[in-house]
């Protein structure tokens, strides 16, 4: 069993040292009242460097990244993270900049941010950009706040509702709630797309806008997007684009041209920055000109031949985090866009969509594909056949896939499809990898038929067997108690 | 440079097998009217060498803290990052992994998060901590939102000694209409406890104290906890993790929610991000705090295992009823903090904090000898404000002398002293500020 | 699906057993089955006033969360403290383990609730609608 770092602590093992003191070793108590001081030090581990390194190396062996293998998580866009980007962000001239340095001393960083604003505006078809939000959900919050501020500025205080499709990612309705809106759900029709009649019925002077992703979470392009935009705009609302699925359409169609007013991007999805086990991400937000005044401060601008931070924006919603954004993530995405260029960006989307449709066609044989038509960069399969035949569920299939060396797809999302497997291969997978995946899925389907216990008992090869989530939630232990 | 591995010949084969005659045919579901009819204006792709050159050129146009000693603090600190740390972070099983939803194949990541949560609890004295938030400011905003959701009142009181950007972020989050942010004028660089006490009433959801505060001063407001608790409100503290090696943990202040900026724990300055918001609470709040939480459990064979738990709080389950929308957080930065705290260790962190303090005390003494005055008379940690007639002018002189000076206030300069600052650097700083260089 | 004959039901899958002016409230077998293993119950405070349709409790499982809505107006006189340490009781026997007891202020509201037969039909319809 793997030990916790605390369990490896041995007094006196740690050799961390500072250079000898050059100034008087003043007693803390001389200048800080005792009432403000700790009585006992925090019981942090006391571990040597060699054992610390071994500890984290060992932990890394019980993790699985894109660099380990295929990672078809729907809506996460687990594409390859180019290593030149890791090199770039570690350059002293990027890593060792204090955010409050005088702007004259950081013109290279400001130029990068300014250029990035423009590149992303071009890719999305928007007019103005902020790079401040630290993640997709953070960008959603920023964008929805901008929508709220816009209506408030027009003295339209009736718009207390925000519409989201029933297939929406959980962050959409959560964001609307956090910003103070009531959520109205719009139904999907039998084709898996927004039901325009339902939308028309629900659009009203009380609705501030509609949050959509396109293609949607079923991997299907909202073909009636222009009509959808018209309904919302004619009703006085704004249209919000959740950019999680942008990887499907870059260089082919732009949300700005589809009619969206506000857009957020996920640099850690579409623009290859690594997921880090749960972050850091970056969620830039783009808007059309009428909304530019509301962007968070500061905006990076040009003033003559210099770059400056523009704080003079009285209608700005303010700040959503300290400083300017996740600069270290932005650098990586910037390098990525430079490397790909216009042709490469379009190629990425084309290959992503090809890979998804290729897989969809291959998996049809063994798996139920509820929307079996041209998809974009991801599609849904379900465990319906396996459930009907032998009671094997999506969860079982996901666990068994790990035995074959693959990370499972997204499971049980979107909520409107039962036993869903959302599969997004991304463009950085070779045909061989895709065929391997298809073969593994085929073997699992076979196992589900012949020896379902192999699937329901999975995983068999992982560090642990299925974990007891119920006890973890009933009697939570969330820290080491010693 | 492209990262797509299939050659045009393979692409053609795949198209055939999938039943398409061309790549364009994959996009017939997109109406022609919204198709882009031109190339994106992004320029041509570049080889890796060219990307490298361009980025190096941009980086070289920046003055960095490797070359110039940095006395800037104000929420981001130039602490030493041990060499082993980055090598661990470069292990791609860590940095190219997704959120550990599949517990069985992610035990390494889950365990590291559990260790991080534990360390935050050890430093702050609190019962529970989450897996991270975006930064100190947004963590504070979420703590205030949580307090308002749980208390009867909706007022959040804070002294104006809180970081001005934290205050700005709070006001932005208050766009929800569910929080009223009230700033209370400070007195001589610290919170005016009397005034705060006078303002605490039944409508108060929370009182916020930042320790050390924005000016580096140590707040002494021991009566606030009781007063706000009596009114069924909460004490929220925004704290500095390095200082917690020697300062009283917020749990002992009676804090209910504790947040802060974890950048100082092994994360480079990186021009402002990615940083690390930590969030800790008393047990009472466990099922209400935002963010991911890793819990300890067992697997089917009784082996100890870790898993993301209490997910019923989160957006993917609560959706429009969720009190926070956070999804991706700052996992890799939290891992950096965990590794940092292990490499520094129990004694090491104390040594670092003590050294920062001693350097700051030394600098304060030398500044006074040079004829300069500190703006405030309060005890401070790692940072203080020195009165200057022309802080901007002083910074220009410092730059010319190869020093990155402190944060400019109207009449003073906020100077930070981390363990990286040498006596020579400090002496030179003071020589320039004192007009002797 | 277990649907006892001596109870009244709501379309949010709550049951209510009336005992004079006291009403015992819980969640049905349908509800606990759909929630899965229940891990936590947020109980109402005693002496709280509650209106019909207002959320009176929250039931959490590993993968879901559900509000429990009061079918009547009145005052919460007690809650079932056993559920604090053993939320799984709701899975084991949802009808033997009530969540709260309410003293009813408006008995006419009971007329809007479903009979066991009506509830059974309602559940059958819900199951059908779930198939995509």
Quick tags:
heterotrimer, A: 482 residues, alpha/beta, 7-stranded mixed beta sheet, 3-stranded antiparallel beta sheet, 12 strands, globular, C: 132 residues, alpha+beta, OB fold (Dihydrolipoamide Acetyltransferase, E2P), 6-stranded antiparallel beta sheet, 9 strands
- Give the CATH class of the domain at 84-339 in chain A: Alpha Beta
Q: Characterize the quaternary organization of these chains.
A: heterotrimer
* Low-pLDDT residue spans of chain A: none
Backbone shape of chain B: globular
- The level of helicity of chain A is 25-40%
- The shape of chain A is globular
Task: Specify the helix fraction band of chain B.
Answer: 25-40%
Strand and helix layout:
The complex is a heterotrimer of chains A (482), B (437) and C (132).
Chain A: H1 28-31, H2 49-61, H3 83-89, H4 92-95, H5 107-124, E1 128-130, H6 136-153, E2 161-165, H7 171-178, E3 182-186, H8 196-202, E4 207-212, H9 225-234, E5 238-242, H10 255-258, E6 262-264, E7 285-287, E8 299-303, E9 306-310, H11 327-363, E10 379-382, H12 384-390, H13 394-403, E11 410-411, E12 420-423, H14 431-450, H15 452-456, H16 469-474
Parallel strand pairs in A: 2-3, 2-4, 4-5, 5-6
Antiparallel strand pairs in A: 1-7, 6-7, 8-9, 10-12, 11-12
Chain B: H1 8-18, H2 48-60, H3 83-89, H4 92-95, H5 107-124, E1 128-129, H6 136-150, E2 155-159, H7 164-173, E3 180-184, H8 193-199, E4 204-211, H9 224-230, E5 234-239, E6 257-261, E7 277-281, E8 294-298, E9 304-308, H10 315-318, H11 331-369, E10 383-387, H12 391-400, E11 407-408, E12 412-416, H13 423-433
Parallel strand pairs in B: 2-3, 2-4, 4-5, 5-6
Antiparallel strand pairs in B: 1-7, 6-7, 8-9, 10-12, 11-12
Helix pairs in contact in B: 3-11, 5-11, 6-7, 11-13
Chain C: E1 8-9, E2 14-19, E3 22-27, H1 29-35, E4 38-42, E5 48-50, E6 55-61, E7 65-69, E8 74-79, H2 82-85, H3 89-92, E9 100-104, H4 116-129
Antiparallel strand pairs in C: 1-2, 2-3, 3-9, 4-6, 5-8, 6-7, 8-9
Task: Describe this protein's structure.
Chain A is built from 16 helices and twelve strands. Chain A has 482 residues and is α/β, with parallel strands linked by helices. In chain A, strands 1-7-6-5-4-2-3 form a seven-stranded mixed sheet, sandwiched between helices. Chain A has a three-stranded antiparallel sheet with strand order 10-12-11, with helices on one face. A two-stranded antiparallel sheet of chain A has the order 8-9. In chain A, helix 6 crosses helix 7 (171-178). The longest helix of chain A is centred in the last third of the chain and has 37 residues, at 327-363. Chain B is an alpha/beta fold. Chain B has two domains: 83-338, 3-Layer(aba) Sandwich (Aspartate Aminotransferase, domain 2); 345-433, Alpha-Beta Complex (Aspartate Aminotransferase, domain 1), CATH 3.90.1150. In chain B, 36% of the residues lie in helices and 13% in strands. Chain B contains 13 helices and twelve strands. Chain B has helices spanning 8-18, 48-60, 83-89, 92-95, 107-124, 136-150, 164-173, 193-199, 224-230, 315-318, 331-369, 391-400, 423-433, and strands at 128-129, 155-159, 180-184, 204-211, 234-239, 257-261, 277-281, 294-298, 304-308, 383-387, 407-408, 412-416. In chain B, strands 1-7-6-5-4-2-3 form a seven-stranded mixed sheet, with helices on both faces. In chain B, strands 10-12-11 form a three-stranded antiparallel sheet, with helices on one face. The mean pLDDT of chain B is 96. Chain C has 132 residues and is an alpha+beta fold. Chain C has one domain (8-129): Beta Barrel (OB fold (Dihydrolipoamide Acetyltransferase, E2P)). Chain C contains four helices and nine strands; from the N terminus they run βββαβββββααβα. At the A-B interface, helix 2, helix 3, helix 4, helix 5 and helix 6 of A face helix 1, helix 2, helix 3, helix 4 and helix 5 of B.
